[in-house]
Write a structure and sequence with these properties.
The chain is mostly helical. It has one domain. It contains 12 helices and no strands. The radius of gyration is 19 Å and the shape is globular.
């Protein structure tokens, strides 16, 4: 059993590294593309909202730090869920030619997204250093916790949708529209407080809205969600992960024939 677990770890890490290398193979800028996409998005949004709107009105003097942190977290979720959902279909030749546990392919794709997130995180740290702003220890711990919860969300979504996507190819198109809608339904470019209270409550039903709102609040203003809110939120995420496992087991058999 121990040997089998070690073999799985090596397989997952090998698949993740291979995906990461192949993604930027042949490009002029190489691995720099991993941070360029969220950085360009941040530059455009920060310019628009810092020029058209007063950052003290839409947030505070550290609006740019909140914006970059939010974009990096949401990009992690967006890239991770898309990669996880597409993982089995994109690795169809691997599935049909040799025996590989399907879940290792899904897990490797989410780890690949995590590697990109960690690279983007270095940019966030650099921007905080340039601004000369140091979040509190509690805020840093909460950011780490929310990053882990985001990964669990990604993995749960991937386990649920990857087998389904093999059968229903429209899922990819649907998720592209859904992720675009989620971007604006998440307080990334605007503070949640500027909305009416009843809309705030509705938006916070979106897990990424909860994560990003309280990430922004904790990093800059040292304001945290109530203890009971965090406990309930963590419980919901863990329940979703628990439900994704039997869902994966139900829909994953006979995938080789359906591909």
């Amino acid at each position: 059993m121990q040997l089998q677990q070690e073999n799985y770890k090596e397989l997952i890490w090998m698949l993740a590294k291979t995906d990461f290398k192949l993604r930027y193979h042949g490009s002029v800028l190489g691995y720099f593309w991993a941070v360029l996409k969220p950085l360009l998005m941040f530059t455009i949004l920060n310019f628009v909202f810092s020029s058209i709107f007063n950052p003290r009105v839409i947030g505070n003097e550290y609006y740019s730090l909140q914006l970059l942190s939010a974009i990096v977290l949401f990009n992690f979720f967006s890239e991770g869920t898309s990669a996880g959902m597409n993982s089995l279909l994109f690795k169809s030749q691997l599935i049909t030619k040799i025996y590989v546990p399907r879940w290792t392919i899904i897990l490797a794709s989410t780890i690949n997204a995590t590697l990109i997130f960690l690279m983007n995180l270095l940019v966030v740290i650099l921007f905080f250093a340039i601004k000369g702003f140091m979040p509190s220890l509690g805020a840093i711990i909460m950011f780490m916790l929310f990053s882990i919860l985001t990964y669990i969300l990604i993995l749960s979504f991937s386990l649920f949708t990857a087998p389904l996507y093999v059968k229903f190819r429209d899922l990819s198109l649907i998720w592209e529209v859904a992720i675009a809608a989620l971007f604006y339904a998440t307080p990334i470019i605007y503070p949640l407080q500027m909305l009416p209270l009843y809309i705030q409550r509705v938006l916070l039903l979106n897990p990424m809205a909860f994560i990003i709102h309280f990430t922004k609040e904790s990093l800059i203003t040292n304001h945290f969600a109530d203890f009971w809110q965090n406990i309930i939120f963590i419980a919901i995420i863990l329940i979703a992960f628990g439900l994704s496992i039997p869902s994966y087991r139900k829909f994953s058999p006979n995938l080789a024939e359906e591909i």
